Amino acid sequence: MFSASTADAPLIEFNRWHLGLLICYDVEFPENARRLALSGADLIIVPIANMIRYEFVANTIVPARAFENQLYVGYANYCGSEGQIEYCGLSCIASPDGADATRAGHDQQLIAADLDHDRMTNSRRINTYLADRVPSLYQSLTAEPVRGEPP
Questions:
Q1: Which of 92, 39, 94, 48 has its CA nearest to residue 68?
Q2: Does an H or E element contain 121, and which?
Q3: What is the number of alpha carbons within 13 Å of residue 131 lying toward its C-beta?
Q4: Cα 93–29–126 angle (5° rounding)?
Q5: How many CA atoms lie within 13 A of 125 on its CB side?
Q6: What mean pLDDT is reported for the chain?
Q7: Long-range contacts formed by 53-60: CB under 8 A, 24+ apart
Q8: Which pLDDT tens digit goes with each residue over 20-54?
């Protein structure tokens, strides 16, 4: 049986980079990426198995997560098919400016990109989303709704 954890996943430091991990569907919730960014992540790694009809996740959401959090996102998606399920591939590494550092097609492919601390630092200097947040404006988003009432 699967149950979601309530614990925050720690960041891992590797070669001066602070890495965070989101698994599959987690990347589709902006709060998950933001939590890692606020913890100091430079790169979020996302292993996933997304199907063809969800290509917008790879093409739109992943670059948006990188841009809005001013970090890199490494999105490793399954490709090919299993029975009736067809996976879309489109693995990518999105940069802090929302651009693709690299992107695969729909088929199996090895991709690599050079991550650049200076590029990330410059992007963070220009796009100050993390510093400009006003958490008091959306504090109610984390409150538990009263049972039977809309959130």
A1: 94
A2: helix 117-126
A3: 6
A4: 55
A5: 6
A6: 91
A7: 54/88, 55/88, 55/90, 57/27, 57/28, 58/88, 58/90, 58/91, 58/92, 59/90
A8: 999 989 999 999 999 999 999 999 999 999 999 99
C-beta separation of 32 from 26 below 8 A:
yes
Question: Tell me, which fold does domain 12-142 have in CATH?
Answer: Nitrilase/N-carbamoyl-D-aminoacid amidohydrolase (3.60.110)
- Round to whole Å and give the CA distance between 143 and 50: 30
Q: Is 9 exposed, middle or buried (0-12, 13-18, 19+ CB in 10 A)?
A: middle
Choice among 13-22, 99-108, 114-123, 141-150 with the minimum mean pLDDT? 141-150
Say if residue 36 is exposed, middle or buried (CB neighbours under 10 Å; 0-12, 13-18, 19+).
Answer: buried
The string of DSSP codes covering 29-58 is SHHHHHHHHHTT-SEEEEEE--BGGGHHII
Residue 141: per-residue pLDDT? 76
**Cα separation, 109 vs 41, whole angstroms:** 26
List the single range of 3-7, 9-13, 23-27, 66-70 with lowest mean pLDDT: 3-7
- Using DSSP's 3-state secondary structure scheme, residue 60 falls into helix
**Chain centroid to CA 3: how far?**
21
